[in-house]
Write a structure and sequence with these properties.
The chain is an alpha/beta fold. Helices cover 51% and strands 13% of the residues. It has twelve helices and nine strands. Strands 3-2-1-4-5-6 form a six-stranded parallel sheet, with helices on both faces. It has a three-stranded mixed sheet with strand order 7-8-9, covered by helices on one side. Helix 4 links the parallel strand 4 and strand 5. The longest helix has 28 residues.
Length: 310
Amino acid sequence: MTDSIKFKRAAIIGVGLIGSSLARALRERKLVEEIIGVDRDADVIMRATKLGVIDSGETGLAEGVKGADLIILSTPVGAIGAVAKELGAAADDGALIIDVGSVKGVALDAAKAMPERVHFVPCHPVAGTEQSGPEAGFASLFQDRWCILTPAPREDGAYKAAVEKAAALWSGVGAKVEIMDAAHHDLALAVTSHLPHLIAFTLVGAADDVESVAAGEVVKYSAGGFRDFTRIAASDPIMWRDVFLNNKDAVLEVLGRFSEELAVMQRAIRWGDGKALEDAFTRVRGLRRAIVEAGQETAAPNFGRDDKGR
């Protein structure tokens, strides 16, 4: 590791799955000397401290970020604008601020509004599980996963250096880094993450509403496909509420396309068009193979997940 990606004090705002995982990874890789947790819930601070995820914690933002040269926003995306505005006044000069949200338009707007004395580089580590809370984190969460950076359009040398430092930080915890336009990121993630979650929430909700099938039967006879949908649908509801509200244009665009494809499948089933169904299923199998070959998944049984779903 180089000195350029070592920090004296990191303040993590929101010590949940991603925040606690990043804290563990930074500590394991010796990239930071001290970690401060910032959370409005004192119980979260207590649990994270007891676990050794953080060295100490604060429930107040200004107190928590004092003296931090690295500030990590690990809040629901709906809170990023307000928290960033407060950080604009509270953060130390020269502090590197990153977020971990899966919608980057709102983070980019916040970054543009920041005073030039601090450096907010929007980031999205494309990693996670359906678990939440400081207990859910683990240091290897980002290993060989992508982290997408969507920097603000600032040309000053200090900000460019901050972007390089943010990229080095993610590389330092094992991630692969890519820089992307925020609007393109939000459309791409609407396809690969946001719509699949919306479908999972809707499908599991529909199964729960089928009155002629008892809830016990849904649990007892769940096949692998439905179990995977329930795993996705178990994700943090507040986080996903904010994702859909803050990326609505991209999600609605992709949802419209999905609705068209679903209508094609509905017609094929109704009219017994086996060839249309087989052709559609054959076409999409190739994408699964490409994902496995790219190292984004494994062909192992249960997708290689352990008993905790990781």
